[in-house]
TrEMBL record:
<dbReference type="Pfam" id="PF07099">
    <property type="entry name" value="DUF1361"/>
</dbReference>
<feature type="transmembrane region" description="Helical">
    <location>
        <begin position="47"/>
        <end position="68"/>
    </location>
</feature>
<keyword id="KW-0472">Membrane</keyword>
<feature type="transmembrane region" description="Helical">
    <location>
        <begin position="20"/>
        <end position="41"/>
    </location>
</feature>
<keyword id="KW-1133">Transmembrane helix</keyword>
<protein>
    <submittedName>
        <fullName>DUF1361 domain-containing protein</fullName>
    </submittedName>
</protein>
<dbReference type="InterPro" id="IPR009793">
    <property type="entry name" value="DUF1361"/>
</dbReference>
<feature type="transmembrane region" description="Helical">
    <location>
        <begin position="203"/>
        <end position="220"/>
    </location>
</feature>
<keyword id="KW-0812">Transmembrane</keyword>
<feature type="transmembrane region" description="Helical">
    <location>
        <begin position="153"/>
        <end position="171"/>
    </location>
</feature>
<feature type="transmembrane region" description="Helical">
    <location>
        <begin position="110"/>
        <end position="132"/>
    </location>
</feature>
<feature type="transmembrane region" description="Helical">
    <location>
        <begin position="80"/>
        <end position="98"/>
    </location>
</feature>
Length: 228
C-alpha cells in the first residue's frame, strides 16, 4: 500500500520538491480547497475561474524552473533571450490575480470574510509565484549580462509587468493574443502610448501597480537576505 502511495502523482509532486515548493503546493491546495467548499455550499461555480488564473500564474514560475533544470537554456544566449520573452509574456498573469479582489462583494449565502480569504489566498499565491520567478530570472539575467544592475532589471520589468496587468484587466487581452490577435493588440497599445493625457487614469493605474509590485519584490528579497 505504501509503495503504491510512493508511486502516486501527488506523492511525487509533494515530496520531490524543496521545502519552499512544498509550502507553495500546500498554499495553492488551500486556495482550491476554499473554492471547492464554496461550490459545494452554494451549488454555484462562482470563483471557480480563479483556479484557471492560478494555473496561468504558475506558468512563468514553471518556465524559470525549467531553465534552472536545463542549463543550456541559460548558457546559450539565443535560447535564453527566447525563453526570457516567452516568460515576460506570461509574467503579468502572476500579479493579475491581485485585481481579482475587484470581484469581492457581499453575497447572500456566503460570509464576506470567506470570500475575502478565498480571493486573497489566490492573489497571495500569484504574488509568491511571481516574486520567486522574477528572482530566478534576475539571477539568470545577471549571469548572461553581468553589467546589468538590479534597478536596471527590476524597474523596467515591473513597469512592463504592470502594463500587462492593465491590458489584461481593462483591455481584456490574454498572453496568447500576441499570436491570436496581434494587430488589434498592437493598435490598442500604440493608441495608449500616443495619447497618454487621454488615458491619465489608465497610466496612473499602471504606474501605481508598477511601484506597488516593485516594493513587494524588493521587500521580499531584502527580508530573505536579512533572515539568513
Amino acid at each position: 500500500m505504501f509503495k503504491q502511495l510512493q508511486q502516486s502523482f501527488l506523492f511525487k509532486l509533494y515530496f520531490s520538491k524543496t521545502e519552499l515548493e512544498r509550502l507553495l503546493i500546500l498554499s495553492c491546495l488551500f486556495s482550491m480547497g476554499l473554492t471547492a467548499v464554496r461550490i459545494v455550499y452554494t451549488h454555484h461555480l462562482q470563483f471557480a475561474w480563479l483556479t484557471w488564473n492560478l494555473f496561468l500564474a504558475l506558468v512563468p514560475y514553471l518556465i524559470t524552473r525549467f531553465a534552472v533544470q536545463n542549463i543550456s537554456w541559460i548558457e546559450k544566449r539565443w535560447k535564453f533571450v527566447l525563453l526570457f520573452w516567452v516568460w515576460l509574456l506570461f509574467l503579468p498573469n502572476s500579479f493579475y490575480i491581485i485585481t481579482d479582489l475587484f470581484h469581492l462583494e457581499i453575497a447572500n449565502r456566503v460570509p464576506l470574510w470567506f470570500d475575502l480569504a478565498l480571493i486573497f489566498s489566490f492573489a497571495w499565491n500569484g504574488i509568491l509565484l511571481g516574486v520567486l520567478s522574477i528572482r530566478m530570472m534576475e539571477k539568470m539575467v545577471q549571469l548572461n549580462f553581468p553589467s546589468i544592475k538590479e534597478w536596471q532589471f527590476v524597474y523596467p520589468l515591473m513597469l512592463l509587468n504592470a502594463f500587462g496587468v492593465y491590458i489584461g484587466r481593462y483591455l481584456r487581452y490574454n498572453s496568447w493574443d500576441v499570436i491570436a490577435d496581434p494587430f488589434q493588440l498592437t493598435e490598442d497599445i500604440i493608441y495608449l502610448l500616443l495619447h497618454p493625457l487621454r488615458h491619465r487614469l489608465d497610466w496612473s493605474m499602471i504606474v501605481c501597480y508598477a511601484v506597488f509590485m516593485t516594493l513587494i519584490y524588493l521587500a521580499v528579497k531584502r527580508m530573505s537576505k536579512a533572515l539568513w
